[in-house]
From TrEMBL:
Family: Belongs to the ribulose-phosphate 3-epimerase family.
Source organism of the structure: Arachis duranensis
Single biological process term from Gene Ontology: pentose-phosphate shunt
Molecular function, one GO term: metal ion binding
Catalyzed reactions per annotation: D-ribulose 5-phosphate = D-xylulose 5-phosphate
HAMAP family the UniProt entry points to: RPE (MF_02227)
Name of the protein in question: Ribulose-phosphate 3-epimerase
A Pfam match: Ribul_P_3_epim
Highest classification ranks of the organism: Eukaryota, Viridiplantae, Streptophyta, Embryophyta, Tracheophyta
Cofactor: binding comment: Binds 1 divalent metal cation per subunit.
PROSITE patterns: RIBUL_P_3_EPIMER_1, RIBUL_P_3_EPIMER_2
Binding annotation for a divalent metal cation: 34, 36, 67, 176
Keyword field contains Transcription regulation: no
Enzyme nomenclature, EC number: 5.1.3.1
Length: 220
């Protein structure tokens, strides 16, 4: 079966102390570090890019799960690859015509390709990318509108997760936005195995407890 990957979102970390925040959260049991790259154009917010990922990479060997909320993901492949990114998840909305080239480039730069979709995007739009000769290896189902941490989880997105899990029993399916102890069972039973959690982990007095709760729900 699929293994759980708990991916705290560094968007909720103290950006002025990124290295110590990363170590704190990895020591609390995180599997991946979720890195939200935003360009102020695809989404109305600007966060981090290749230079910050390159800096963080010097302080950790952790899997850096990069979520590319950018209008032109192709422009970011080489910089992110050189910076030491591990996963490169682009949005299907940005890449209707060039996803094959994009997947190819991501792999040739040593990263694992994934595709994300916004709440308003139908799930069928990712099928060709999962079924391609060179496929994406993860689908990220947004459970909030992308752009900001701390928003409310959209339970109606679980239909997409269920449909994906039924169709692809071994696929990595990631959920992102508003996840925490109150809704993890819903996401896990729908079939998600990669769990992004920003405010619920970083806002907790004991992040390790929240991470272990998220993991045990996925393992059930
Ligand atoms: C939203 C980002 C998320 C966000 C999650 O655009 O993609 O990764 O940081 O944060 P929470 O868990 O607080 O919704
Ligand atoms: Zn994200």
């Amino acid at each position: 079966g699929v293994t759980p990957n708990i991916a705290p979102s560094m968007l909720s970390a103290d950006f002025a102390n990124l290295s110590s925040e990363a170590h704190r959260i990895l020591n609390s049991g995180a599997d991946w570090l979720h890195m939200d790259v935003m360009d102020g154009h695809f989404v109305p917010n600007l966060t981090i890019g290749a230079p910050v990922i390159e800096s963080l990479r010097k302080h950790t060997t952790a899997y850096l799960d990069c979520h590319m909320m950018v209008t032109n993901p192709l422009d970011y492949v080489e910089p992110l690859g050189k910076a030491g990114a591990s996963g490169f998840t682009f949005h299907v909305e940005t890449s209707k015509d060039n996803w094959q080239e994009l997947i190819q480039m991501i792999k040739s730069h040593g990263m694992r390709p994934g595709v994300a979709l916004n709440p308003g995007t139908p799930i069928g739009e990712v099928y060709p990318l999962v079924e391609a000769e060179k496929p994406v290896e993860m689908v990220l189902v947004m459970t909030v509108e992308p752009g900001f941490g701390g928003q409310k989880f959209m339970p109606e997105m679980m239909d997409k997760v269920r449909i994906l899990r039924k169709r692809y029993p071994l696929l990595d399916i990631e959920v992102d936005g508003g996840l925490g102890p109150s809704n993890i069972d819903m996401a896990a039973s729908a079939g998600a195995n990669c769990i992004v959690a920003g405010s619920s982990v970083f806002g907790a007095s004991e992040p390790a407890e929240v991470i272990s709760l998220l993991r045990s729900s996925v393992q059930k």
